[in-house]
Amino acid sequence: MNTTDIFNDLSEHVSLRIHSCQCSEHDRLWVENKTHHDYDLWFVTAGRVHIDAAQQSSTAAAGDVILFYPNEPYMARTGEEGCRFVYVHFDFAIGEQFRILDDFELSGIVPGAQVHAESLQFLNAFTPYQSNESISSLQLKGTLYVFIAKLLALYAAGLYTGSFRSRPSTNDHIRNMALLQPVLRFIQSQLHKPISVRELASLAGMSDKYFITYFKKTVGLTPGQYIYQLKMNKARDYLYQKTHAVKDIAHLLGYPDPYTFSKAFKKYYHVPPSRFVR
After folding, report:
1. Handedness of CA 142, 147, 150, 155 (dihedral sign)
2. Which of 97, 101, 197, 237 holds its CA 20 to 30 A away from the CA of 244?
3. Are residues 140 and 39 in the same domain?
């Protein structure tokens, strides 16, 4: 299982909250030393920005995008030409894990050529947002979703890796997804059976209680919620294919009988599986 697959599997639980979005323009020899409590994304529209982070220096030109992680210090400066950029502060979460992006090496300077279309969409949405036009906040949020999705796709394909992180985060609230990869792969392969927390905890080398806590802090959902979501995703796909009866889907997803499956399905989709696809 690719680590970024979690965004597909749990797309219904992904949330994005924009805290602020503004245009910032700076004259020659501007310098800023900061850390932020949330994610900070800069769309450079003019000039150059020199960034010192993780004990190295790099430069972003017009068209490039800069992503800073929360609580990671940087120094930004300009040369003689100054710079202009649109910045957006935001949270990006799965369930209750508001720092889910921290488990991926994304913070750094994203070359403009790799995200040109997505950056342009965002900047085009920024203009009506700045004027407070009708539904402009929703449009801006949508384009930010698209940008982050593209960045994750580039990362998953090995086409982009950020350079601002010198070492893994030591924040106690941020868990490394790598340790859970065997667990996530096991769940994917065993959806046709009942899966207990005990066997998952054993696979991770943890006690049952600690595993539940660790899983929720890492993924944003409990193991039970995660398994339920995957089963509902599969059930939806089976029903759209129209190749399986409800009783067969119940069996394929490890439910003891069609009634138990139908009850779980209706709880999630608010309609019984027999009426889901017409």
Report:
1. negative
2. 197
3. yes
